[in-house]
Write a structure and sequence with these properties.
Blueprint (H helix, E strand, L loop, with lengths): L2 H19 L3 H17 L4 H20 L25 E4 L6 E6 L2 E7 L8 E9 L2 E6 L1
Helix pairs in contact: 1-2, 2-3
């Protein structure tokens, strides 16, 4: 069997595996395997095929890492993340405070609420900044 057939078959296996993982890293290695196969197709010896395949695969991975698709997503605390908790960013109406704590009517229920750290309690419309257990953390709009 020719070397280039092995390279291209391995690249196809990596592309298929990539479809199951959802990352682009296996695809970058498959690009390196394809480069190794093209080198073999041009008649180069195995050591050069390996060097070209590895170099292209590593370069493609490094380039991917520098794009928005390869960057690690900073995952913050879920109680502050509006992508996790859809209540964050919603407004509630506060009538009065009692020792830094209030009760607000939100989503058909009565919730305990506090102001965010360092903020003075105010009345009126406030925005939900976080949720700690069953307590809403509020801030001025």
């Amino acid at each position: 069997m020719q070397d280039y057939v092995i390279w291209f078959a391995a690249a196809c296996v990596l592309v298929a595996a990539e479809l199951f993982t959802g990352t682009f890293y296996l695809l970058m290695i498959a690009i390196g395997f394809t480069a190794g196969g093209l080198t073999a197709l041009l008649g180069s010896e195995l050591p050069l095929q390996l060097v070209v395949g590895a170099a292209v695969g590593i370069a493609a991975t490094v380039i991917l890492r520098r794009t928005r698709w390869g960057k690690l997503q900073k995952q913050g605390d879920a109680m502050h993340n509006p992508d996790v908790n859809l209540d964050i960013g919603q407004t509630v109406n506060v009538g009065e405070w009692n020792n830094g704590v209030t009760r607000v009517h939100y989503r058909g229920a009565s919730w305990e609420a506090v102001m965010e750290t360092g903020a003075e309690p105010v009345t009126g419309n406030l925005v939900i900044k976080a949720i700690r257990g069953s307590t809403l953390v509020l801030a001025s709009i």
